[in-house]
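[Q] Does anyone have a clean structure-token version of this?
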Amino acid sequence: MKRCRICKTPYTATRPLQPTCDSYDCKVTYALSIAEKIKAKREKADRKETKAKLAELKPLQYWLKRTEKAVNTFVRERDREMSCISCGTNDAAEWHASHWKSVGANSALRFDTANIHKSCDQCNVFKGGNATEYEARLPARIGQAEFDRLKNSPRSRKWTREECQAIEQEFKAKLKDLQRG
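[A] Here you go.
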């Protein structure tokens, strides 16, 4: 004896793998539920495919911005207990992740965390990064060898979509680890 998957009444199967009793209503209901499951699975696959196609259509600039946002969020969290790299203040209305070598002047250092540090909004926005003070305080924070590496780094770099996605995932994982303690 088996139990009908729809009405739950016991029945004797007349053929192998029979899922329902011989009631017409149970057979129709079961067939419709199977069709609905297949349709839902197909729709899910279609949505996934559409999402992938849309991601391919997005310009490189979209991925660069997403990656920079992830890196900057990590840097602000990493430097949470530190003061502004440029002026040394601990009080700011808003904190930014400031680049010593700007993204426009040196795209190769765009995602290099040695080049990015926490800065107050006054220095980063209103004083254009306060570059002279930034440069004076940077060797003390990262060390002279790292400072020299940044100073002599290549100036330009073409980033790819795949590199941006990998860097974004890496820094999101680093941020989670940093927030866990």
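[Q] Thanks! Anything notable?
[A] Residues 2-57 form one domain.
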